[in-house]
Amino acid sequence: MTHEVSPPRVRFAPSPTGFLHVGGARTALFNWLFARTNGGAFLLRVEDTDKARSTDESTAAIFEGLEWLGLDWDEEVVYQAKGLAQHQNDAERMLASGAAYRCFCTPAELAEQRKALTVGKESFKYDRRCDRLPEEERAQRLKSGIPFVIRFRVPDGTTEWDDLVHDRISFPNKDIEDFVILRSDATPIYNMAVVSDDISMRITLVMRGDDHISNTPKQILLYRALGAEPPRFAHVPMIHGTDGKKLSKRHGATAVADYQNEGILPSAMVNFLALLGWSPGGDREVMTLREMTELFSANGLQKKAAVFDPKKLEWMNGQHLSRIPAAELAPLVTPMLVQAEIASEAELAERHEWYLALVDLLKIRARTTHDMVRQARPYFAANISYDPDSTAKSWKDAEETVALLTGARERLTQLAEWRPNYMEEALRALADGMGIAAGKVFQPLRVALTGMSVSPGIFEVLEAMGRDLALTRLTQAIDHIRAR
Known about the structure:
This protein is mainly α. Helix content is 49%, strand content 10%.
């Protein structure tokens, strides 16, 4: 565990220009875990300075995504756009101290300078010509109302820091040009607003994607120019698709809400996200959020890029489904069953204990809650459809299958009690009498009962269906085969 001198203050700072994406959710989770593990504060800042692209809908979607994942934040949400006066004041302070200067160069003039000064493979760097203007000329330009930006004067030397993930990182300051901190319309550029906000929010650790490493030396210089001690930094690895390329829409769903709609549990999603760039040590994989809070340490953060594998997420979801009590799962599955018109809320409430037993039965072989809904249909519907691949494989010989299902129906009809041990005894006796292995009875029977070749154990299926529905299913299957 990383020990803090005082309780840490970390932040998640999304731009409200879209949904909460996988990368942002993972960053939020790491910050949340760090705060909760170290008794600190997890803060939320909405970086809404891009008025053209920022929307209230996106802000709401980000909040909903965080809440679904169980990531609560401390203190009031900070909206970056409301801090404009503070950002301007901080830029003016640097102007007054000599850490920054006014630049009157127009975009056209800068383009000419770039054209003239770019030599070979060296990139263009502003030559500080406006910093060398005589005081009288500078005053005259100001008086004339000539537009200007404020540029930060990058000092000589190097800027370095001890990154919690990448260890010591160092940048020669000569490679950083005098960057703009305030535009000609007096709005701050990204690095200026971020540093100003982080200072006012008293952030002690900035944990973010390692695509931000190039911003960090500029931000450290701004902290120092404003007389503030820079926070610590942790740059976590990027997330790639299974093809090794940066995760994007071409890899499928990238928004957290998409996975919520695909039947993924929030507990599985946070578990999966946590393992994208962090390891608790050993071979441990399946964890609750509470367990992750107890285990999380910055020492477990990894340098190499993480791979987002949807199949691994589904497997993880199946693990969480199997561990969650039916009483917790039922409220998630019920509205899905109602929407699919498989059962009504009243019907499920009336058979509550039976329903909970069914949920426990279905969750074992399910990867998503959608799987559970698909598997639930045979236990409710008056009629079912038969999967063509399953019937082709398990009902190859129509005459033999009818004889087998008819024999099973007769044996099951005669049972004194509808219990698994009696069912097994009767069906195994049927198989012996027909001179075939028991599995040759069970699989055609499974398809007859559920319409599918995959289901819970055959005796569990029979017990959950109940005598009347199970026998009805067998009659329906026999009629279906004969008609075909």
